[in-house]
Amino acid sequence: MPDCLFCKIIEGSIPSDTVYEDADVFAFKDIHPKAPVHVLVIPKKHVATLADCNDPAVLGLLMNRVRTIADDVLNLAAGYRVVINVREGGGQEVFHLHAHILGGKKLPF
Length: 109
Ligand code: 5GP
Ligand code: ZN
Fold this sequence. Notes:
- By secondary structure, this protein is α+β, with helices and mostly antiparallel strands.
- It has 2 helices and 5 strands; from the N terminus they run αβββαββ.
- The chain has a single domain (5-103), classed as HIT-like (HIT family, subunit A).
- The protein has a 5-stranded antiparallel β-sheet with strand order 1-2-3-5-4, covered by helices on one side.
- Bound molecules: guanosine-5'-monophosphate and zinc ion.
- Guanosine-5'-monophosphate binds next to β2.
C-alpha cells in the first residue's frame, strides 16, 4: 500500500468522521471545513491525482457517488459545489484523488 493519508483513513488506522462508505468509495468530513458542509469523496482504489487517472470506471463511479451522497446523505437539495484540485498548481495537498463537496450556504464564485 502506498504511504498515503487517505488510504490510512480508508483502512481506519487514521480516524475520520465518516459519512458514507461502500465497496468502491469512502466519504468523510474535511478536517478544515471551508463551508458548513464540506465532505471529501475518495475512491478506495489509490489514484494519486485526476490528471493521472485514465480510467473512466473510477471517474464515473466517483462522480456518481458525489451526486448521490450530496442528495441522499448530505441533504444538499438546494445545491452544492464540487471541487477537484489537481497537482500542486491546482492546490492539491493530498495525493489520493478526492472530490470536495461544499454546501450548506449560498456559495459565491
Ligand atoms: P486538497 O488540497 O488536496 O484538494 O484537499 C485536501 C483536503 O484534505 C484539505 O481540505 C484538508 O483540510 C483535508 N485534510 C487533510 N488532512 C486531513 C485529515 O487528516 N483528515 C481529514 N478529515 N481531512 C484532512
Ligand atoms: Zn491513497
